[in-house]
Amino acid sequence: MAINRDIDLMYLAEEIQLLSPHNFEDGIISIKDRIKTSTLSLAVLGQFKRGKTSFINALIGEPILPTAVIPVTSIITILKYHPEKLIKVVFLNKEEKIIKFNEIEKYVTEKGNPDNKKGVKLVEVNYPLDYLKKGILLIDTPGIGSTFLKNSEVTYNYLENIDAAIFLLTADQPVSNAELDFLKDIKNHAHRFFFILNKIDYLSENQLVEILNFNKNILEKELNQEIEIFPISSKWAIEGKSSINNLLLKKSGMSQFEDLLNNFLLHKKNDTLMASIKNKLLNLTNGIISYYEIEKKIINTPLGDLESKLEKFKEGIEIIIREHSDAEPIIKAEIKRIMESVDSDLSYFKKGKDLELIEKLESRFKEVEKMEKDEIVCTMMKYYTDVLESIFEGFRLEEEKKVIKSYEKIIHRFSEKTEKTIEDIRKLSSELFEVDIPHIETKDTFTIEKGLYYRAEPLLYTMTEQFNYILPSFAFKKTLLNKIRSNVTEHIDMNCGRIRADFLYRLNEESRRFIGTLDEKVNFTVNYLESAVEKGIIERKKTYAEVKKIENELNKKIERIKEINLVISS
Q1: Rounded distance, CA 509 to CA 254, Å?
Q2: How far is the C-alpha of 516 from the C-alpha of 524, rounded, in Å?
Q3: How do residues 195-254 score in pLDDT, each as one tens digit?
Q4: Which of 166, 192, 389, 547 is the most buried (most CB within 10 A)?
Q5: What are phi and psi of 197, to 5 degrees?
Q6: What is the DSSP letter of 225?
Q7: pTM beyond cutoff 0.70
Q8: Contact, 141 vs 158, CB < 8 A?
Q9: What is the DSSP letter of 47?
Q10: How far apart are the C-alpha atoms of 281 and 305, rounded to whole Å?
Q11: How far apart are CA 207 and CA 199, in angstroms?
């Protein structure tokens, strides 16, 4: 059923479609479909490893979406209502494929579908869930800020499709600057926020109160409005639903949130959806007006002048682009310089760390040597990983601050240079054609968070070699301790190498995205004007009467779209 309030949005959208250029067609069709189905897109959003997928599984009451301790979700996954359980994979080439539930990991995870080599656009999970039946699409998104840069891009590119958002924070750490930056971007798209503090099973009651108050104060300051944060344990919720343990389910906080969600869907869903659609229509119509204003100015320029100006414009653009193309080699050279500093710091840091690690391991070994063989192995495996992380993590965090600070200086410099490039293009177009080109911003902060975990495979393999277990107890312990000692230097070097590789990968990926953004800005600006000018030249070659007719038609369209905007805004 179409949404109808004081105005008929479907009628207005259809009229806008008739008034708009062809290149705005897809956006209008998408909005019309949303009005027709009255379906609200509710996206689960947040930084990497905040438990978004686990939260959705807990809401459903069944672990149907894959989770793990490393970055998992890499493809948009949409849950929609259907009386029967069914999963459909939609590919970029528009082909579709029905898969089994146990096959979903092969398509939506970084492990099963690295770098989206299978060309998946999105995955639709059809499921008989009451929330979905009430007219919502529940959307699982890749986490922002993981080492897999494309995951962040997938989520950012999808933001324009959402109407409301469930924003996940976690109880094990306060809200970060990166999360606040992400929230600023979401604010431009979502018309209703639900804030979740996940993983409350990590904290005591006092700790929970402290982190809730801290996050609430920060978010209210950012949003300039009062908010409510729902403390939830997805772990307890899944366990409570699967075992029909109502006490555990209540303790998880999920029941309270479900009550709020049900109330929202019953009383406020349509208002939120209408506000979101209105906003999307206004953005679309403003773009159409801008396009027509440029076209109008172009067709009023004498043809000879127009062709001459286009030639001058292309010559000027060539010079500007040539200067802009210096960015990539310079940024790569700067990254090399940053990594040389990292190498120097790593070299200094690891001096004596092998002796420190051996001392800690030997001390712990003395505490557990009276245990059974299996217990010794399990205890030492866990202790080794923990102490390895404790040795490295403080250094890594400080080094990361230095790397980010150095990198942000680079991209800030090139952001300013690109802004100057854009302004040069805009100035050139203004001087030649007396037109103003729409301007887009560059996001120039380094927000990729750590995806690194520390490894000790050679040691863990040593501990679990079967032949060790057949040795007498004293020989087993002696052999194990000697092998631990002999491998420590290798483990220190290996994890230094992993830290280095992690920084290098993240810098290269972030710089690739950043350079791509710079190129996108410049190309958008150039192509927008060239397209309008070339169309104007074709129209300008018509007779004076035909040109005036085109101009009158453009004026009528602009005025009518402005009238529609007033109606939408009312």
Answers
A1: 37
A2: 12
A3: 989 888 888 888 888 889 988 888 888 888 888 999 989 889 888 888 888 888 888 888
A4: 166
A5: -105, 100
A6: S
A7: no
A8: yes
A9: B
A10: 36
A11: 12
Structure tokens at 117: 């080599």
Structure tokens at 482: 């000697």
Residue type, 68: A
Q: Residue 325: CB partners within 8 Å, gap ≥ 6?
A: none
d(CA 182, CA 273): 22
The three-state (H, E, C) secondary structure of 416-455, written as one string:
HHHHHHHHHHHHHHHHHHCCCCCCCCCCCCCCCCCCCCCC
The radius of gyration computed from the CA coordinates of the chain, to the nearest angstrom, equals 29
> pLDDT tens digits for 389-407?
888 888 888 888 888 888 8
How much is the pLDDT for 348? 92
Neighbours of 527 (CB within 10 A): 10
Q: Residue type at 8? A: D
DSSP result, 114-171: GGGTT-EEEEEEEE--HHHHTTEEEEE-PPBTSS-HHHHHHHHHHGGG-SEEEEEEET
The share of the chain scoring above pLDDT 90, in percent, equals: 6
Domains observed in the chain: 39-267 (3.40.50.300), 300-557 (no CATH)
Name which of 122, 109, 107, 129 is nearest 62 in CA terms. 129
Let me know how long the chain is: 570
Amino acid found at 491? H
